[in-house]
Design brief:
With 736 residues, this protein is mostly beta strands. The protein has a domain of 180 residues: Sandwich (lipopolysaccharide transport protein A fold), CATH 2.60.450.10. It is 3% helix and 66% strand. The chain contains three helices and 46 strands.
C-alpha cells in the first residue's frame, strides 16, 4: 500500500471539502460568473446558472483546487447555493497528480458555513497528470458528506465503501481533517487486504488514521484475521510502511493460529505483531500477563509469563513458531498425551520449536527455576527439581529426551507409608523413554547428597536406573542410617529390595541394636555392640539380614576380631561363615576375683558358626592360641557360653592334634587324634590314635586316654590290658 494506506478514504472525503473555498467570496463571484438572469426565476431562487460554473483557487502560480458544476442556483430562504453535477479537483503539492471528487448534487449552506452532498459521492485518489505514469487509484463511495468551511473538516455519518490497489473496506461515519491529515471512522470498520496469496481482514469499532505517521488506531475493540490466524483485542495500533502492515500493537489481546496439526494461542495485556515485507508475521511480543498455548496431537504446552516473545519462520504461506522467550515469573506447563504433566517455573525461559512449529525441541532457562512432575495416576510419583539452570531436550510428540540442571535439588514423594526423598548435586542429567516419557536414568555428580527418611548418602557421582530402581554411587560413596554406615569407592543400592553391593576399600559400621537380650549377646557378632568391618567388597540382602564381606575382610567389636578373605553373616539362619586365611580373636572378660582377661586366637582356612548351638567350627588346618596354650589340628570346634558370647566353655580338636604349653620354666606337648578342652577346670583330654603327653620336667606319658589339668598340673592316664600305660619320669639331679 502507498503512503496514505488503506485509509485513503479520509483523503477522498477531504477532496469534497475543497468546494468550501467558494463560500467566503460567494457574493463577489456571483456578480462575475453568474449567467444572465432568466426572465422568471423559480420561487425562492435568487439567481441561477445553467451553462456551467468554474471556480479555481491558487497559491501563487500553483493551483490548489478547482470546482466545476454544470448548474448553479442561489436560494434565498434559508440562504444556500445549490450545485448540480459537481466535480472537484484537489491538486497534489508536487504537481504529480490530483484527487477527484464527484457528486450529482451539493448544497452550500451560507449561514452554517458548510457544503453538503446528501446523495452519492464518488472519490478517486491519486490520479496522475502524466498518462504514462502508473496510477494507484483509490475509489471511495459514500453519501451525506459535509464540509465545514471554518475547520476544513469533512464528515459523514453514513456507510462508506472504498476500493484501492491492495484492499477493500467499509465503515459507518467518517471525519477527515485536512489540517493534520487525520481520518476517523466512527463505527463498523471493516477492511480486507488481498495482496497476492495473503489476505488480512481487519475489523474495529472505531478507527483513526494519521497519514503523516502512517498509523492506524483501532478502538475500543479490534480484530485481525489472516488465513488461520485470528487476533482479538481492545484498542490497537497498526503501523504501515509503504502501504504494507509493518507492526500491530494491541491491548488486552488474544490471538489464535489454527493449523491442521497444531493450534497456537497467545494473549497479553500488550501484544506486538511484527510483519515481514511479504505481509507474514515474523515476531510476536506479549507484555503483561502473557500466555502462549501450543496444542497438537503430542499434547498441550502452556507458557505464562510477564512477557513472552515469539519468533516465526515462514514456510509457504504459513508463519511457523520457531522460538518463544519468556521473561518474568515464567511458567511452562507441558501435558503430553501419555507422560506425567510437567510444570516448570523460572524467571527467564527460552523455548525452541522443532521444524514445522508443532513440537518443542529445546527448553533452556536463564535463571534459577523449578520443575514438577505431576502424577497422572496412583503408580506415578510426584517429583520436584530445583536448579540454577535447566536444559531440556525433547524428542517427537513433545516427549522429554534429556533433562539437565546444575546446582540441582530434587524431591520425590514417597510411596504410601514410605518417606520422601531429597538429593542435591552440582550437576544433574536425566534421560527419558521417548515412547512413554518415563524417566529411565538419572545422573547426579559433583557433591551428591541424598536423604530418604533416616537413610542418607553422599558421593561424587550417583546414577539412578529407574526401571531397575538401582542407585549407583561412585567416588567417596557413603550410605548411613540409624543402624550404621557404609563407605566405599562404589556402592550399588537396589531400592526395591534394599540390597546393596559396595566395592573398593569398603568400611562399614553397624551400631548397637535396641534389643540387648541374651540372644543378641550370645552370637559370634554381638548386635548389642558396635560392629565395624573392612573389605574390598560388601554385599547385603534382605534388609541387612544377610551380609557378605570379600577381599581382605576384617570385622571387629572392640578387641574381638575376625579376619578372612570372605565373611558371610546370615541373621535369619543365625550363621556366621569365614573363608580363606581365617583369623579370629575373642577376649574373655575376667570373672570377679579371677585371673586377668584371656584372649583366644584361632587361625584356619574356614570357619562356620551356628548361633543356636553356640558352636564355631574351624576346618582345613587349625591353630588355636589361648593364653600359653597352643593347639593345632585339622578341625576345631568351640562352644561358647549362652550368656556371654566371648566366654569359651569348651573346645574339641580333631585329626592330627598337637598341643603345646610353653611356660618360662617348662614345656608341655601333647599329640592325639582328638583333644577336648574344658575351660571351667582347665582340663585337656587327649584320645584317639596314640595319645602322647610330654612334660619337660616330669617326662613323657603314653596311653589310650590322657587327661591333663592345666590349671593345677595334674595328669590322669587311663590304660587297657592290651596296651599298658607307659610313663617316663625325669628325675631331678642331686646337687653336690
Amino acid at each position: 500500500m502507498r503512503r496514505t494506506g488503506w485509509l485513503l478514504l479520509a483523503a477522498c472525503l477531504a477532496l469534497a471539502g475543497a468546494v468550501g473555498w467558494v463560500i467566503q467570496k460567494q457574493k463577489a463571484l456571483q456578480a462575475l460568473h453568474a449567467p444572465k438572469k432568466p426572465n422568471t426565476l423559480p420561487l425562492g431562487i435568487q439567481s441561477q446558472a445553467g451553462e456551467g460554473w468554474v471556480w479555481t483557487k491558487k497559491d501563487g502560480e500553483r493551483s490548489v483546487a478547482e470546482v466545476r458544476a454544470k448548474e448553479f442556483a442561489q436560494v434565498m430562504d434559508p440562504p444556500r447555493v445549490q450545485l448540480r453535477e459537481v466535480e472537484v479537483k484537489i491538486f497534489h503539492k508536487d504537481g504529480s497528480g490530483f484527487d477527484l471528487v464527484k457528486s450529482p448534487a451539493a448544497e452550500l449552506k451560507a449561514d452554517e458555513g458548510a457544503l453538503y452532498a446528501d446523495g452519492e459521492v464518488e472519490m478517486t485518489m491519486g490520479v496522475k497528470t502524466d498518462p504514462s505514469a502508473r496510477n494507484r487509484l483509490v475509489h471511495i463511495k459514500t453519501s451525506g458528506v459535509t464540509y465545514d468551511t471554518q475547520s476544513g473538516k469533512v464528515t459523514t455519518d453514513r456507510p462508506a465503501e472504498f476500493d484501492f490497489e491492495n484492499s477493500r473496506g467499509s465503515a459507518t461515519g467518517a471525519v477527515y481533517s485536512p489540517a493534520d491529515r487525520n481520518l476517523v471512522m466512527n463505527s463498523d470498520v471493516k477492511l480486507d487486504w488481498h495482496k497476492g496469496l495473503r489476505k488480512m481482514h481487519v475489523e474495529a469499532g472505531h478507527l483513526t488514521y494519521k497519514e503523516d505517521e502512517e498509523k492506524i488506531y483501532l478502538s475500543p475493540w479490534s480484530k485481525l484475521v489472516r488465513e488461520s490466524l485470528t487476533l482479538n483485542a481492545a484498542a490497537s495500533v497498526v503501523t504501515l510502511r509503504k502501504g504494507e502492515i509493518e507492526l500491530v500493537e494491541a491491548a488486552n489481546a488474544r490471538g489464535e493460529d489454527k493449523q491442521p496439526k497444531r493450534n497456537l494461542e497467545y494473549a497479553a495485556d500488550q501484544l506486538i505483531m511484527r510483519f515481514s515485507a511479504d505481509n507474514t508475521i515474523h515476531r510476536i511480543e506479549g507484555d503483561g500477563n502473557a500466555r502462549l498455548i501450543a496444542l497438537s496431537d503430542a499434547g498441550k504446552t502452556t507458557v505464562t509469563s510477564r512477557r513472552v516473545d515469539m519468533d516465526f519462520d515462514v514456510a509457504g504461506n504459513e508463519s511457523l513458531l520457531k522460538k518463544a522467550f519468556g521473561r518474568g515469573d515464567t511458567v511452562v506447563r507441558s501435558e503430553p498425551t501419555r507422560a506425567p504433566v510437567r510444570l516448570m517455573k523460572s524467571d527467564v525461559v527460552e523455548m525452541s520449536m522443532r521444524a514445522g512449529g508443532e513440537e518443542i525441541e529445546n527448553v533452556e532457562t536463564h535463571s534459577p527455576g523449578e520443575i514438577e512432575f505431576l502424577p497422572r495416576g496412583p503408580a506415578d510419583r510426584y517429583r520436584k527439581l530445583n536448579g540454577e539452570k535447566f536444559w531440556i531436550r525433547y524428542t517427537t510428540r513433545n516427549q522429554i529426551e534429556t533433562f539437565r540442571a546444575n546446582k540441582a535439588v530434587t524431591f520425590t514423594k514417597g510411596k504410601p507409608k514410605l518417606p520422601d526423598s531429597r538429593s542435591t548435586s552440582e550437576e544433574l542429567l536425566a534421560t527419558f523413554d521417548p515412547k512413554t516419557g518415563e524417566m529411565m536414568r538419572l545422573e547426579q555428580w559433583n557433591r551428591f547428597e541424598y536423604e530418604e527418611g533416616d537413610r542418607k548418602a553422599r558421593a561424587e557421582k550417583a546414577v539412578l536406573e529407574q526401571p531397575n530402581d538401582l542407585i549407583t554411587l561412585t567416588g567417596g560413596a557413603r550410605i548411613w542410617d540409624l543402624t550404621g554406615s557404609t563407605d566405599a569407592a562404589r556402592i550399588e543400592l537396589d531400592q526395591k529390595s534394599g540390597n546393596m553391593i559396595a566395592t573398593g576399600k569398603v568400611a562399614s559400621t553397624r551400631l548397637p541394636e535396641k534389643k540387648t537380650g541374651a540372644r543378641a549377646k550370645s552370637s559370634l557378632v554381638d548386635s548389642s555392640e558396635t560392629v565395624q568391618a573392612r573389605a574390598e567388597k560388601m554385599t547385603t540382602k534382605d534388609e541387612n539380614s544377610w551380609i557378605r564381606y570379600e577381599g581382605g575382610a576384617t570385622m571387629w567389636q572392640g578387641a574381638d576380631r575376625v579376619e578372612a578373605e570372605i565373611i558371610t553373616i546370615d541373621r535369619k539362619a543365625q550363621t556366621f561363615r569365614a573363608q580363606g586365611k581365617v583369623f579370629t580373636q575373642t577376649r574373655e572378660k575376667p570373672k570377679p576375683g579371677g585371673k586377668a582377661q584371656v584372649f583366644t586366637l584361632v587361625r584356619a582356612p574356614e570357619l562356620f558358626f551356628h548361633d543356636p548351638e553356640k558352636n564355631a567350627h574351624y576346618v582345613g588346618g587349625v591353630t588355636m592360641d589361648r593364653g600359653d596354650l597352643n593347639v593345632k589340628s585339622e578341625e576345631l570346634r568351640a562352644w561358647f557360653s549362652k550368656d556371654d558370647r566371648n566366654a569359651l566353655e569348651r573346645a574339641q580338636a580333631e585329626k592330627s592334634v598337637e598341643i603345646l604349653q610353653k611356660q618360662p620354666d617348662r614345656l608341655r606337648t601333647g599329640s592325639s587324634e582328638q583333644a577336648e578342652y574344658d575351660v571351667s577346670d582347665g582340663r585337656v583330654v587327649l584320645s584317639g590314635g596314640a595319645p602322647l603327653f610330654n612334660d619337660s620336667v616330669k617326662g613323657t606319658t603314653r596311653g589310650q586316654k590322657i587327661t591333663w589339668f592345666a590349671d593345677n598340673d595334674r595328669l590322669l592316664v587311663d590304660g587297657e590290658t592290651a596296651a599298658p600305660t607307659e610313663s617316663r619320669i625325669k628325675r631331678k639331679k642331686s646337687g653336690k
